[in-house]
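pasting for the record
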Amino acid sequence: MRVLSRILLKLLWIAVVFLGITVVSFWVIHLAPGTPTDLQTTMNPTVTPEARARLEKLYGLDQPIHVQYGRWIARLATFDFGQSVSGDNRPVWDKIEERLPLTFGMNVASLILTLLLAVPIGVLSAWKQNGPFDRSMTVLVFIGFAMPGFWLALLLMLALGIHWPVLPISGITSLDFPHLSFWGKVADLARHLALPIFIYTFGSLAGLSRFMRASMLEVLRQDYIMTARAKGLPERTVIFRHALRNALMPVITILGLSVPGLIGGSVIIESIFALPGLGQLFYQAVMARDYPLIMGSLVLGAVLTLAGNLLADLGYGLADPRARRSGGEAA
């Protein structure tokens, strides 16, 4: 019963936080100058004030902001994100859904690659502290921290797309993509997405490997590690069986907070490589003052942020049994 009460309290708190996020987001986007009707009327000298008023009434912009929010949240309760008010007037979720696989797939691939590379780099850097490997990785991560993603993207496009044209630099498929075999299509997609995924991975690798190194160094100074070594356990057993599990705690937190990035995408990188992802869609929605589409993207990000926090809590319990015991006692 206590565990059930704790779960219900957690879900209630998540609902309150989510509601607060939507209120603030809805209010802030309406503070920005311009409205959806401006792009349709400002550059048209024949539009009359009456026509502008009809458009505002059609989109519900003639109502006070609290009334607009009430109508929007009522539709959201039925999983209706509304209609886009820019251009095609398609349902918001349809526009998000068609771009979700690309952004989600690229960021999942980047996250997996980052994790597979950053954890070993951090562990080995802490294990061989101040050695040649640690020093070389320190230089690499400082380069990763200092190098802007858009600048690296332009350099790689210039080097690998123009001077040595080995990889495509725009789009996600070639012109002959429909005529390729299954494995040919896979290879074509991989070639088009290689550069964006590399840039995502390189930018994330620096921070995560540093966190892993710092956490590992802190764990290696603990008394139980000294005890394990005093018992004569092999150094690999001490590092990978006793120290690594506890050193993963901060990394789990970072991974939980990385969940929103799986759909957030990167506006700059997607724009540079002409990738039709969610980042580019969100940028277009902001520039068009497409309130329903902006709110749809923000809601999706808020849900994943809260889900990431829950996954981090679950990860704590899996990585450290003490977290499970303390959670049960607190409940």
